[in-house]
Amino acid sequence: MTNAVFFVSCPSIESTRILLLRIYGPSSGVLISRPKELQTLHVLSSKYHIGPCVYGTFENGRVEEHFDATTLTAADMRSPQTSSWIGARMAELHNVDVQDVEEARGEDDHWDIAVAKNVQSWLAYAREVLALPGVSADVLRALDLDAFENRWRQYARWLQDVESAEGVSRRVFAHNDTQYGNLLRLKTLKDGMPEHRQIIVVDFEYAAPNAAAFDIANHFHEWTANYHLDTPHLLNPALYPSQDERRNFYRSYITHCLAEGDVSLSDEEMEVELVRLDRQVQVWSPASHAMWAVWGVVQAREMVEGKDGEPEFDYLGYATCRMEGFRREAHALGLSM
């Protein structure tokens, strides 16, 4: 939703490859470190064969590898087979050595968790947007950032207590934005390749160390989105994956997480892991809403300033929807907000 993408070809010259030209969105600079993203893409593509190769860069964009693939749709993600493939691919990304793509901060190799870092750093930019004269009183009431920050801190303390008591969700290198538009399906698969490898993950703008459960919860929230409807900014919680759909995803994810160590689980052990992972996803779920609520406000600057012409996406409406989701899910977990 923040980049313009073009396919570049030269049909007059035989055997030339199609390339992808990506132009960065106008508000993305305050949200994304492009040098860090390029470093991530280089390491993932060269060492782990994940994501596209980058062939060249310029100030507001880059040229990268084009995959002969189709972009998944909202309906595609609901297919049990496709969902299990996505789970497998997410497991492979989560098995990436964080040290390969992130610089350690401190002697104990501690990395900032992306969701906490993003919410904290983006709030200042969000406040600037809501201070602009084009923001209505109704929007200011719906997106009360002072109240949100207090609720976020309350939730973060609660989450820390839960992880201390129940166990910590594994810290991994996470994609953090596995919506259907960032998932491709190859039209052909090379001989001998596992079938789940036909799913290609792209757009690593927000990829960073995070809780594994956050990445999964965030993906499940994307089941409730359809960016091709008349109201693409509104999520439909009724479309959140059922318990059976979540367990289908988890089985594939857990199996492929363990595959690197050549470990297998008995049925009883798998059941324990399924229950544990579902609980972790549940407690991290509000964090996804919180992060994207603040993101939506920051992205709304062009729209609020009237520089966006006829906006294609209602970022403030999206932020309001995600803010409501944060409060709703935190309340469901027993937090009084």
From TrEMBL:
InterPro entries: Kinase-like_dom_sf
GO MF, one annotated term: ethanolamine kinase activity
UniProt-listed CDD domains: ETNK_euk (cd05157)
Tree of life domain: Eukaryota
Keyword line: Kinase, Transferase
Gene Ontology cellular-component annotations: cytoplasm
Coiled-coil regions listed: none
Gene Ontology BP annotations: phosphatidylethanolamine biosynthetic process
Cited Gene3D superfamilies: 3.90.1200.10, Phosphorylase Kinase, domain 1 (3.30.200.20)
Family: Belongs to the choline/ethanolamine kinase family.
Protein name (record): Kinase-like protein
Classification of source organism: Eukaryota, Fungi, Dikarya, Basidiomycota, Agaricomycotina
